[in-house]
Amino acid sequence: MPEGIERALVRRFRWYLSGIGAGAMAMGLQVVVFPWILVGLLQETPDRVGLAQMAVLVPSLLLILLGGAISDNRHLGTYLRSLFRIYTLPCGVLLWAALTGRLTFPVLLLFGICYGTVTAFVQPAREGLLPQLYRGDLQRAVAQSTFVQFAAQGLGILAAGQLDRIGLPLLLAAQILMFLLAGSLFRRSQPAHEGRQAGVRGDRPRVRSGLAEVWRLPRLRALMLVVAITGFFGFGAYLVAIPLMVREVYQGGSGLFAGVQLCFTLGVLAANLLFMRRGAALARPGRRLIVSLFGRGVILLALAAHLPAWALFPAVLVWGLFSGQAITLGRVLTHTLAPETHRSRVVSVYQLAFFGTAPVGAWLTGEVIAAAGVLPALALLGAGTLVASALAALTPVWGAESETRPGPR
Hints:
By secondary structure, the chain is mainly α.
């Protein structure tokens, strides 16, 4: 590859990572602000917290395959800029509600549905742009993007931890600005004359072709099953049980909740630092994915035992370490096993598997907490995760290997 083209690709990949970072910082604010409005400001019940989190996740279940089909025939730099601008609409409504004292549960439900709808289109487009900009070791590229994503998300979480000092309106205004910045950076990463151009809009057969491609390949099919299990148990704990545990078990506020979220993020970062250092040398990713699922089950059982406050933070950090491994390994295996002509559509199936089961998991977790309490719900989630990991070890994912793509880094 000529040196000038190589330098241009490196520069554009850095713009892509910058876009990942700006968007993730805005989403880091979301990770703390949205559940804490429900739990801390509105004092909602566990079942209503689960319902609100479900409202954010359901659009992925309904629309992400359409999002993947559309992304395969779009100029993704321009498309992502438009999508990130649309994020500002629901965020603007939430800012208006905060400024006028109209924060209510119905407003949060409306926000969650709109925010989740945009996300259903953003995720496959963002993933589909990565292999267009990077020509080296794909495992390292995915690890770099995941590291930047969670590092920036950690900064957003740190800022959201100052909610009581900074104030909700200022945090929401900062979130809007970060979404606008992210859109501009993604557009800069892919000039208008490069990459795939806008083509024929998706129709039903093309939307379904991603599912057909996954079903045709046994390892992809098994991988999506493992990812779906991860989403079902993991999101119920992360989105519903943890904020309620902070409030009801540890009697903490937004600062403690942000601290717990930050520990989780630090664990994800540590996992991806390992990937970035070892790159393609990290063998047997399928086996490591299943082991990470088992490890998360153990951590959830430990949290259910009502750990002392000093042990809560390292436990959540280890949980983040296992989750970071799973996130990167799942993405790597999806990218390398998917045919290039269907990559965005297969990635959308991955996102559907990961997030599609999450609304049901979040809702059921809220119902179990309402009936039995936070700690019994965590114990049930942990036990279910252990059983799921044992069954996953019997699938073709156990022997799955990633591939590397030749070329300069």
